[in-house]
Amino acid sequence: xxxxxxxxxxxxxxxxxxxxxxxxxxxxxxxxxxxxxxxxxxxxxxxxxxxxxxxxxxxxxxxxxxxxxxxxxxxxxxxxxxxxxxxxxxxxxxxxxxxxxxxxxxxxxxxxxxxxxxxxxxxxxxxxxxxxxxxxxxxxxxxxxxxxxxxxxxxxxxxxxxxxxxxxxxxxxxxxxxxxxxxxxxxxxxxxxxxxxxxxxxxxxxxxxxxxxxxxxxxxxxxxxxxxxxxxxxxxxxxxxxxxxxxxxxxxxxxxxxxxxxxxxxxxxxxxxxxxxxxxxxxxxxxxxxxxxxxxxxxxxxxxxxxxxxxxxxxxxxxxxxxxxxxxxxxxxxxxxxxxxxxxxxxxxxxxxxxxxxxxxxxxxxxxxxxxxxxxxxxxxxxxxxxxxxxxxxxxxxxxxxxxxxxxxxxxxxxxxxxxxxxxxxxxxxxxxxxxxxxxxxxxxxxxxxxxxxxxxxxxxxxxxxxxxxxxxxxxxxxxxxxxxxx
Length: 487
Prior knowledge:
By secondary structure, the chain is an alpha+beta fold.
């Protein structure tokens, strides 16, 4: 790879690039699915290619190819410079990328059991065992089980002197059960919504979640929901379980802190953000118990890696501290731009640039944006709540393009009466505005309840890029929240 990367960088600078980098990506992915006792999918795909990004005359240029050969590297490097120079003719704000990033290193995801070494028969047997147990519950109409694994080998090199090799392994699984009766349909998912949860690591992840061992419970819950009373429409105390809170963090905390959205470069598709630069360091995002970090070094988390796709090391940074907004997700370019207008802001990127593949330009993407644990146990939190609702596992979501107004629905809920869980409730929803909602958070459960939830389907960019991100959460309580259908 070193010969090809050196050739690409030499060609780019020879054609007038002031800066250049190259990413070579070799990916292998496997997908398995069963449905109602039948194997629905056994698929595996591989792809390999490279992308070259350059700065010339103060503008970016990018080109890529799936043909890894010397002559093609020369052609693509020259094309990237041509594109940059063409872009410069319409560019009124020359790009600055801040101080150099020079790293020579190798990173590998810690893996106990190589997921590709596990026989397909063993994986399918696990899925079918969970499927059989779920469908043994009377009232279950559909059961779907899935597994995925992926290994991505990436080589990054830049004209600043970086040369970084990475091998990132992901494994995911999920089970979804649908119950139907008299025109009503209810779904329960495990371990996360939309029948999929992923982490970085090996097949030990599948073993730890034990799909067959939880199949009966989620099937019984799906059936019980058919006869459960609907969630009332009222203003009450709300407790969110960790998996639902993870999506709440994703939508109302992760996306608005992406600095490219703040600067408007994602406005067409992804939207903008209410977190304008004047709010940095002084805006109250939530109550004093709200502490949020972005940490790409979290072990096992789907948003963890060694280096981002600009060659910047993975980092842990504060986003909200004691309820105050203190940090964005940045790239080299946006960090430099922010620092020029707000000198107290870091000039260096916090390592959040990633592309979905070799043929896509890197964008600012969430890493592991997490709500830090508090001091409560879940039992004590429920016991301390006289009247409220406990909502579990996301079912639906909607939020505006500035990430302010939102509505979420969950698969399951329980009423809380006198400090105890009461009746099961179906079709629960809640709504709010981001700063007000987080300002009403008065308790977060402790580290014993905290875990990281993978989100493998975060979309952004034009053309669309789907990123892997994650969110660490523990159940938390929010006061005076509107739940149920709005009148």
